[in-house]
Design a protein that fits this description.
five-stranded mixed sheet; oxidoreductase activity; globular; two-stranded antiparallel ribbon; alpha/beta
Length: about 160
C-alpha cells in the first residue's frame, strides 16, 4: 500500500463516458481516489453513492472524487445510470488490467481486482491519506472529509500569518 507523504503517480484511464482522465487533470485540486472491487455489487454501489452524496462537500473543500475499479467503460456507464450517479466520475481501470490499482498498491492479484481503499492526493500530488477497508465494509467518507477539512484549516492558518 502507498503511504502518506509519497508522490502520487499520474495515470490515464477512461471514465464511464469514455473521457480520458489523468490525475494531473485537476491542478489546484485535491483528488480522492476511491478504489472498489467490482461494479454491480451492493457495497461498491453504496461506496460510489457516498461519493456522489458528498460531492458538494468535496467541491467546497477543493476536492474531486474518482471511483475506480477494474470494470470496463460500458459496464461503468450502465452502472452509473442505474445508480443515478451523474456528477462523480467512475473510472475504468480495465486495460491494462488493474494498472492504476497496481500503481497505488491496492490490486489483489489473486482475485483480479482492487481492494477497497480511499487515497487522498493533495494539490501538489502528495498522498495525504490512505485508508484500506474490509471488502464487506462501506468506507466512511467522514474520514476523507476530516482530512480535507484539517488540511483546509491548516492552509487558512498559514495564509493569516503575516510575513516578516
Amino acid at each position: 500500500m502507498v503511504e502518506v507523504g509519497e508522490q502520487a503517480q499520474d495515470f490515464l484511464i477512461p471514465d464511464q463516458n469514455g473521457n480520458e482522465i489523468r490525475l494531473s487533470d485537476f491542478p489546484g485540486k485535491r483528488v480522492i481516489l476511491s478504489f472498489h472491487p467490482l461494479a454491480w455489487t451492493s457495497i461498491c454501489a453504496r461506496q460510489m453513492e457516498a461519493l456522489e452524496a458528498n460531492r458538494e462537500a468535496f467541491d467546497a473543500l477543493g476536492a474531486v472524487a474518482l471511483g475506480i475499479s477494474v470494470d470496463s467503460v460500458p459496464c461503468k456507464r450502465a452502472w452509473a445510470v442505474r445508480l443515478g450517479i451523474n456528477r462523480t466520475r467512475l473510472l475504468a481501470d480495465f486495460w491494462p488490467h488493474g494498472e492504476v490499482a497496481q500503481m497505488y498498491d491496492v490490486f489483489d492479484s489473486q482475485k483480479g481486482y482492487s481492494r477497497r481503499a480511499n487515497i487522498v492526493v493533495d494539490e501538489f500530488r502528495h498522498i495525504i491519506f490512505v485508508g484500506e477497508y474490509p471488502a464487506t465494509t462501506v468506507p466512511d467518507m467522514q474520514d476523507v472529509l476530516d482530512v480535507l477539512q484539517a488540511q483546509e484549516k491548516s492552509r487558512r492558518a498559514e495564509e493569516q500569518v503575516p510575513e516578516i
